[in-house]
Design a protein that fits this description.
Distance between the termini: 62 Å
Radius of gyration: 22 Å
Structural class: mainly alpha
Largest sheet: none
Strand content: under 5%
Shape: elongated
Number of helices: 7
Low-confidence stretches: none
Number of strands: 0
Number of domains: 1
Length: 156
């Protein structure tokens, strides 16, 4: 492993230790989450109020799990960005002050192995955050709909 990869692993270990100290617990994924994510209207009609409540809780747990994944990738992205800026600061005088910061980032990365690795980590984490963005809100919305359906079924 490279020095940057070792430092990233140490950073992730520190995040894990922080979560353990603060008591952050994220439930394990329910094997039937895919069923609840893709529930058909016919199945919704036949669900009892209790089943609606259970499905809502499982969807909320899944939304929490996804949010934790987003938070972790955001922390990694911020870590990589901070370390990249430190490298850039050391080489800033080598480049014209009118060059955009993004361009400096890639120019420095061409000459610096650590910067190359950091750009890769940053890009990967950013893509993961982009991929998961807004899903937690959508899933929480599905859970709220199930709770509303649960209330409707109870009133019958």
């Amino acid at each position: 492993m490279s020095d940057i990869e070792d430092k990233l692993q140490e950073f992730i270990k520190q995040l894990d230790e922080f979560e353990n100290r603060t008591g952050v617990v994220v439930s394990k994924l329910s094997p039937d989450i895919e069923l609840y994510m893709n529930i058909e209207s016919e199945r919704l009609k036949n669900m009892t109020d209790e089943e609606c409540g259970i499905a809502a809780v499982k969807l909320q747990q899944y939304a929490t799990y996804l949010q934790k994944q987003i938070n972790r990738q955001t922390a990694i992205k911020n870590w990589a960005d901070t370390n990249l800026y430190a490298i850039m600061a050391a080489h800033n005088a080598d480049y014209d002050k009118f060059i955009k910061i993004e361009m400096k980032r890639y120019l420095i990365a061409k000459e610096n192995n650590a910067a190359v690795k950091l750009v890769g980590i940053l890009n990967k984490a950013s893509a993961r955050v982009d991929d998961l963005s807004y899903l937690t809100g959508r899933i929480a919305g599905q859970a709220e709909s199930l709770l509303a359906l649960q209330q409707t079924k109870r009133k019958r």
